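Consider this today:
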Amino acid sequence: MNITENYIGYDDLPKNKQEVIKECDKKNLVLAEISQPATSLPKKTCKDSIKNLSEPDLQVNKKYEKENIILAETSQADVLLSKITVKIPVKNLSEISQSVLPKKKFQFTDFCYDILHELENKSYANLFYKYIEKDIKKKIIKYPMDLFTINLKLKNNQYTSLEEFEKDIRLIFCNCYTYNDVESEVYRSGKTLECIFNKKWNEKLILQGKQTNELKRVRENDTEDTDRTWKKQIQILEQNKDNLMYRQVVNDALLITSAYENLVIGNIIPFIEILKTFLLTRSKMSLSLANESMLQAIVESLLPLKYRVPELSLVMDGKKSKGSGRFGYSDIFVLKGLGNNYISLELKYISLVGLIKNQKVGFGANELENLDKILEKENEEILLKRSYTYWSKELKKTNQTTIGEILNNGISQLKSYMNTISKGKVANYSSSGVFDERIEIIKSNPNKLKGFVILVIGFRRILWKPIEEVISNYNYNKI
């Protein structure tokens, strides 16, 4: 028996709706009939779905339960039937989603939005968009659901799996068939819309399965390549174990790795030590030219390429325009890898030229080096009060401040960056958050964001200040 032979009111439907139903018939969906009083939900299709609803789903349903809204036509006097006929696929599509998709969690929000928009674009979808109490004659639905609620849950990242999304969609159809006359426009539109959902759902699951399998093959190939490379590197090191140059390179790499491992657990001291060691290798002749860009490049070189994101792009205030405080850039965002925390670094560099300029008209590399050595041992309280002159790009003039003010500004700046990062990906044009194509952001259990302001003066003096940690409900991965 096919759908068209057992469809009540099929001949009254417009041709375009008949074509959609025929299309579903071609998909060989085996349908079963279930008959029961309309005072309860269909045993197979609704009750089980409601029983398995997650806590967030029940909270949404309780909100609507106060209104007891039902989906019905405003002009229809007799909404309910003593018995109803519901046709459902014998094979639950949630089983398909379990078999086609891997157990590993993937970013499914776009997947769900595509399905939802496909349904919302149909002219008769407005019947299922949102319940309106004043248009309802009888109010008995215990677990209402509509497209508006699903859209809202997607926007607020309340879904944690495809199965939860599918349950809510099917709950709409369950309520439609349970509480509406079989010959009503609402009932027939629900049937048509469900056929469209089944078709699109299967198509996207199959496509997603193919893409996932292809990605798995690529990853397996990458793993094999990595293993081969690693074995080759071990072989080269073994062959050159007595070579002093190779030994030094390995020692340097181990120091950098150890500094990174300490950094992501919140201990910055080993990283500061290796940074100072690197700075001291530079010539005194470069003291007059050293700046923040130089510091940025050095710090980047001391962090693993895979776990650092320089100049992370952020939308600080989505309501502002470009050039007026809309965008910001976190100097270096460090991914946790196997560590416990994500780390955000704010870098500040104090040029010795800006400190000596008001004290002496003529100066050279020797004078700068002497000042560098003095500042290395200077009391921190006195150091922070030192006047500093610099050129302001924004104001296009020379400004005078203190080292302490620059440090405090860096602290305030980093706090703002960390709060923005904790919001996750930018949701829309007017919102704030991370706006960087190099980063994949996924909803997760709470994670810690830690921050450090690193202020370097010359090549010998480094000040650093920790920032109060921020909690984020996201994971950040480098693409």
Residues 52 and 167 are 9 Å apart (CA to CA). Strands lie at 31-37, 83-89, 308-315, 327-334, 341-350, 387-392, 397-402, 433-434, 439-457, 461-478. The longest strand covers residues 439-457. The chain has two domains: 4-212, 240-478.
